[in-house]
Amino acid sequence: MTWGVNLGADNVTNAVNMAKAIVGAFRSWSVQASGVVLERIEIGNEADLYKNNGLRPSNWTVEEYVPDWISVAGPVAEAAGISGRDGPVTLQGAAFAGQGFTPREIFDLGILDSAPGKAISVISQHRYSAAFCNGGDFPLISFMSKANVRGNLTVFEADIAATQAKGLLYILGETNSIACHGAPGVSNTAGAALWAIDYTLQAATLGIKETYFHEGVGYKYNFPSYYAGLLINTFIGSTKTSQIVELSVDDSNVSGYAAFEQDKLVRVAFINLNAWLLSSTGDRPSVHIDLDFAQGATADIDAFWHKGSATARRIIIDHADDTANLTWAGQSYETPDAHPAGRLVLEHVSLSEGIDLRATEAVLISF
Are 93 and 142 in contact (CB under 8 A)? Predict the structure, then answer.
């Protein structure tokens, strides 16, 4: 777990007491027996918004944030027994809500040269594609957009590069479709599951190591996105060696990704973001995907081709604006105990013939 310590109160004693309480809790027998461990402490959540919510003056700047953070983070790190970024517990830096403050700016201002800064192992930023804090009407189709997914993530490319240049990991420490607990008609729909697949895998190709999706009881973010996690985890695999690359797909609605393990192609995923809605009429459109392999791309490509087949699992969705009745590889997880119900369906895929993918559907092919 990553646990937050209050910076907004600007009270060192309060922050130190919080840190001691956090560390003490994780040292307790019951927590240790549970297997839950403390990985990082984050000092200050979305500090770039403090000037807007009364926690700092309205003219507060990033130049003031850095020494402010150091003055609190130093005693917190000491109280928690954190001395560097190689220990079992480290600090998580930044955690900014937007681009008001950036990792590049705080690096240039010397935050990593400070004593607590030397304990930062991860840089976190937050990202939502919209906000429902004051209500609003957000079209689901705008989220099921290949171009919009990329536009919402590429703003971080310079920050990612600067973070990696410092030898640190870069994550989205808080993200999801729409801020302020989601919006009905988007965050709770089946279409959001396809958005989450493309969004997460696109983030990975940009060098974002982890994405933490904001969730909570009663929030608009809802169960369909669990199916996105099922496909993503299967796509990534369990070896911890997979490398993910985006495939060039000449279709404005279809995204594709490949997973390699030890330089061998093992899986590909395709997401058709064309929104098939309850209001849609006529025949449901589909695209045909031809699987064309560059010779020498993997050591086993000839064996793949001559064998002539692979297996596929699909996320089947009736309509993008549905809030239930999805299946993953033929199985439903909408059960009382969340265990899958139904027969597992693994499709045979002929490599020479390719595969069809309907609007509002995703498929994972394993070689």
Answer: no
- Please tell me the predicted confidence (pLDDT) of residue 292: 84
DSSP string, 167-212: T-EEEEEEEEEEETT--TTTTTSHHHHHHHHHHHHHHHHTT--EEE
Q: Around Cβ 13, how many Cβ atoms within 10 Å?
A: 9
pLDDT at 231: 98
CA distances from 16 to 13, 38, 72, 157 (A): 5, 16, 8, 34
Domains 2-237 and 244-366 equal at CATH topology level: no
Q: How far apart (Å, rounded) are the C-alpha atoms in residues 21 and 35?
A: 18
Tell me the C-alpha distance between 219 and 226, whole Å: 14
Q: What's the average pLDDT block by block, 10 residues per block, for the chain (367 residues)? A: 97 98 96 96 98 96 98 98 95 95 98 98 97 93 95 97 98 96 95 97 97 93 92 96 95 97 94 98 97 65 63 98 97 95 96 95 97
Boundaries of every domain in the chain: 2-237, 244-366
**Tokens representing residue 81 in the block:** 């027994």
Q: Could you tell me the fold of the domain covering 2-237?
A: TIM Barrel (3.20.20)
**Which CATH code of 2.30.110.10, 3.40.50.300, 3.40.50.620, 2.60.40.1180 fits the domain covering 244-366?**
2.60.40.1180
Can you tell me which residue has the tokens 């480290």?
90
